[in-house]
Amino acid sequence: MAAPAVARFLFQRVALGALVIVFASALTFFFVNLAPGGPASVMRFDVTAEQREALIKRMGLDKPVTQRYVEWVTGAARGDFGTSLLTDEPVTQRIGERLPNTLMLAGAAFVLSVLLGIPIGLIQALRRGSPLDHVLSFLSAVGLAVPVFWLGIVLILIFSVSLHVLPSAGVTGITTDTLFDRAQHLVLPAVVLASTVLPTIVRYMRSAAIEVLHEDYIRTAESKGLGPRLVVTRHVLRNALVPVVSALGALVPRLLGGAVVTEAVFSWPGLGRLALEAAQGRDYPLITGLTVVAAAIAVGTTLLVDVAYTRIDPRVRVA
Amino acid sequence: MKLGLHTILLRATSTMLVAALAVSACTSTTTPPGASTAPSAAAAGPVSGGTVTIPIGADPTLNPWSPNAFVESLFINRAIFEGLTKPGKDLAPAADLAQSWTVAPDGLSWTFKLRSGVKWSDGKPFTADDVAFTFNDIVLKPDLGAQNRASYAAVKSVTVVDPTTVRFDLTRKFAALASFLAYNAGILPKHVLSANPLTTTTFNKGIPVSTGPFKVEKYTSGQSVSLVPNENYFGPKPFLDKVVFTVVADPNTQVAQALSGDLQIMILDNKAAVDRMKSAAGLVVVARPLVQYYWLSLNQTDSRFTDVRVRQAFVHAIDRQAIIKSVELGYGSIANSPITPALAAYYDPSLASKYPYDPAKATELLKAAGWTPGANGVLQKDGKPFQFTMDVGQRGVLEPVNALIQQDLKKVGVVVDLNTMEWNSYIQKDVVRREYTATVNWWTYPSDPDVFPYYHSSAAGKGFNIPGYQDPKLDDLLVQGQSASDLESRKAVYKQLQQYTSEVLPYLFLWYPQEIDVLSSSLKGVPELGLRDAMHYIGEWWLAKK
What we know:
The complex is a heterodimer. Chain A is mainly α. In chain A, 75% of the residues lie in helices and 0% in strands. Chain A is built from 12 helices and no strands. Chain A has helices at residues 3-34, 49-58, 65-77, 91-126, 131-145, 148-162, 179-194, 198-213, 216-223, 228-265, 271-280, 284-312. Chain A is globular and about 85 Å long. Helix content of chain B is 30%, strand content 22%. In chain B, the strands form 7 sheets. In chain B, strands 14-21-13-20-18-19 form a 6-stranded mixed beta sheet, sandwiched between helices. Chain B has 17 helices and 24 strands.
């Protein structure tokens, strides 16, 4: 594809993405302000009306919501997402502290899901109708049905409480912080989070591969005497990956959603748990900041997938 | 929306975990609720060394007066900051930064003699200026909205008499001042916070300057806060090398961590796991007293509830023992007044059996109040059914308790509709706006019988007097309690107050809960207090060598 076309394509997508993010921030800001309660009412039960009024004033919540949003957007344009109402820390700092943890967890879960999901789906397609296919399909269905929190607790009971082989919570140990230590802490939450998308990847891969296996070019390749391994890797895998890759982009928001529960169960200090804290405390600037980050991740991933799409399938061209 | 989902998930998680734990529980000890199973003192004396890990639910704010210093902050703040007084092991106020205090004959000023030679953790001397700064420039400044400010409504100002003496001048007598100064009233360093006392992030979320036996070593957001001994501490060096507060939001994960040996002490919020904890090797389960009681508030702006016979009938109709048994698994006792058994010097045990569960008596009282059964069995008066909505905040045990109360009241012909709400919305509706008919909640207060803020007419409608109950006789008793200076006269007043409140029922008293603490069997020296109070004595904790 020509360089100007790529540049135009990227510019259009980035501009559209920015619009989506601004829209998401506005929607979040106004909706969360409509929710009953407020940061000043989540304070302890025994806070007097006088104290509440003082807090409302200090947090600037006595101003109209539109004015507060305009102030927020103006600040955000300069990279200042405001101050957390509950901790008085800059929102960017709070998000910045947690973002790497979520990226690590979601990244590990994503890689795990892809590394397992694609081969499993492919095997199922190649062994379509066999007992192995049925067993794997059943396990996929179970995987889709099992709630994340339940799986998390069960794994903690098995691997942490009974077998004492893996830690039950946190990113590092109390006194240790080595790469091995971090990896150990990552295992259970990554497996649990992977369970939210793995079955979907398996299913997508299975159906895509089955479809490809029926294509004429597969028969042509086979009739030309190409070995089964080469047929699978050169033709089946490559062509089946096209719809799967586009599905992977759509799975990122689901992964972020799953991270909320996974992080709560494993006390993983990431954006998901921060989002829960922010929602519980009606921390408007923090909630909005988190929405922007989540939207940016989703938009960015979609863009990446679109680019990857053009690489995997040469038939796809930038218009 | 997110909250609702979270609550549902946590509840479901809780149920699942309990089921899983029940399956995995092999044996169960038969320790009766309330019996102390505290680790006996080791034969050898205390030894130094070791790390104790304690779970907290969220990131703390390391400033006791910050409006954001929620419950998770209490643990750490009590370990690092010191007040003029602290709760004694008998819960009476004991010396801390103040070594003694005297009350003027008119009761309108208190003079505190401060401990000399105390230093802040940064090496600067602690003086009376710090005390005056904490109160005059933080607590008494209405625009700052300091936590617990309402407890000091009677304090006019604090004056520095000399570098080791301060005087509290009051607008009225306030016998509970020393008790209130023992609870979350840590003194802050003037030399660090004079420019910005409550929102200095490097202090609140970093390494604060403090006077306690431990100081903060490292604050890792979302993960942990670690403490190490404060080399400038005026008292004996603590035994522990390190104390780590680890952020574990989910109570079920806390249970799992205690079972896997990652935690040394915790409050067991999920009482359903108590048997599993008791049967676990290396853990000890103990019940501790709490200065807390649950209540049912009937809004006094509703004419149906201003008739005391109706309130008394409701107490007879609610099977409170069944609530304690099913919801608290027996860890609690029936309440009939605001003074809890934890305040042993004041508590009147004779009231415990005042309102036995007696639906027939309830029906009789309701009949006397003009409520008679209609054709459908629902009580009627002037052609209107006895039906109302009870708002339920989603927190702790409130949901099952409300359901039990609903069933009990139905048995005597009263229809209760439950309106379950997310906590923040609930506070806004029921506490801030007082737009409710009936609701269940609880009070926790400093270890002193002065309950003025919760019962006085002046707090009706806008303060902590949630039902909006107004009664000159009760007001008089509350003022007498604040004016009585010696223990015996206070005992006499508060005995009267207990008897009177149990009769007129400003709130319908439900039960006094107990706290269940889980400790590693190697952890010694923890006093028999609720865990948050025991934090004041963390310098005395030690770990026995295994």
